[in-house]
């Protein structure tokens, strides 16, 4: 029975419809997407099952990565986290395509992201390298998992705010959780690609884990996918590069991931410079130029 069709058995009269519940949000595919709301707050519909099932599959994939790490199958643990990232990029888009946004899906998505891209990478890195420094290594793993959770909480807390200078200019605040997980595994990519023991050093891995944790929780303006718009003349070239990257992932996955990480890290200062230009323009027009406090 619909909420609007509820019937009072005592009086025999229809009840007044309950007020619509606020902020019914769909699972986010990325933080730079405009979040839309469903027109009613009537709970989880059948159309919401598919995107939520994909989100649950991403969660299962992230946790399976831990299981592979326990068995020492490091390449499979990495593939499990990468597959979780692919699924995370699908659920929100499918929810919007089906108009199946729900608060349930949004909450499930945040929980899945925290586990798949925060806790799972932290545990995998600890079992792979950081356990050789039990205290400092565990502290680095905790820092990564906590900063990932705090980042997601910050995003959820600000999702309904209109005053978001970074997002309104087409930028993200800090490094997204799935990207942060991918960057954290850079020493493991190098170790698998070269076989050099230096990349498994707990000191190196620990310092790098702290760096990535800082990037995730930082207030730096980073480029979003939507802000990367190649000129029309390079459209065919961009499609060809995308196809080549996918083919390279199948042939040489570790070197390809190393290259992707290097390109992303090189784009971090580019995003900072571009947003500084936006700040100057906004300041000249008297508009807000910094994010409001959380």
From TrEMBL:
Domain of life: Bacteria
Record GO cellular component, one term: membrane
Region called Disordered, residue ranges: 1-25
A molecular-function term among this protein's GO annotations: phosphotransferase activity, for other substituted phosphate groups
Family annotation (Pfam families): CDP-OH_P_transf
InterPro entries from the UniProt entry: CDP-OH_P_trans, CDP-OH_PTrfase_TM_dom, CDP_ALCOHOL_P_TRANSF_CS
Name of this protein: Phosphatidylcholine/phosphatidylserine synthase
Organism in which the protein naturally occurs: Aurantiacibacter spongiae
């Amino acid at each position: 029975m619909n909420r609007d069709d509820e019937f009072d058995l005592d009086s025999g009269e229809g009840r007044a419809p309950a007020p619509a519940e606020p902020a019914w949000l769909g699972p986010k595919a990325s933080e730079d997407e405009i979040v839309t709301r469903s027109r009613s707050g009537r709970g989880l519909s059948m159309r919401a099952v598919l995107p939520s099932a994909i989100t649950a599959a991403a969660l299962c994939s992230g946790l399976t990565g831990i299981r592979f790490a326990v068995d020492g199958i490091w390449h499979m643990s990495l593939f499990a986290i990468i597959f979780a990232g692919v699924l995370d990029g699908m659920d929100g888009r499918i929810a919007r395509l089906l108009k199946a946004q729900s608060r349930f899906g949004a909450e499930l998505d945040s929980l899945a992201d925290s586990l798949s891209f925060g806790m799972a990478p932290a545990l995998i890195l600890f079992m792979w390298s950081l356990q050789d420094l039990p205290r400092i290594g565990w502290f680095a793993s905790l820092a990564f998992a906590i900063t990932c959770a705090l980042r997601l909480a910050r995003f959820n807390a600000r999702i309904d705010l209109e005053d978001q200078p970074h997002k309104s200019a087409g930028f993200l605040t800090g490094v997204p959780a799935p990207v942060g997980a991918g960057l954290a595994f850079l020493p493991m990519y190098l170790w698998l690609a070269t076989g050099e023991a230096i990349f498994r050093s707990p000191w190196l891995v620990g310092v790098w884990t702290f760096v990535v944790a800082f990037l995730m929780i930082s207030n730096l303006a980073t480029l979003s996918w939507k802000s990367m718009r190649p000129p029309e003349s390079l459209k065919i070239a961009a499609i060809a590069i995308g196809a080549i990257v996918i083919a390279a992932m199948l042939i040489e996955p570790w070197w390809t991931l190393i290259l992707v990480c290097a390109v992303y890290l090189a784009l971090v200062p580019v995003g900072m410079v571009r947003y500084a230009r936006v700040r100057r323009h906004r300041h000249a027009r008297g508009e807000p130029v910094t994010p409001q406090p959380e």
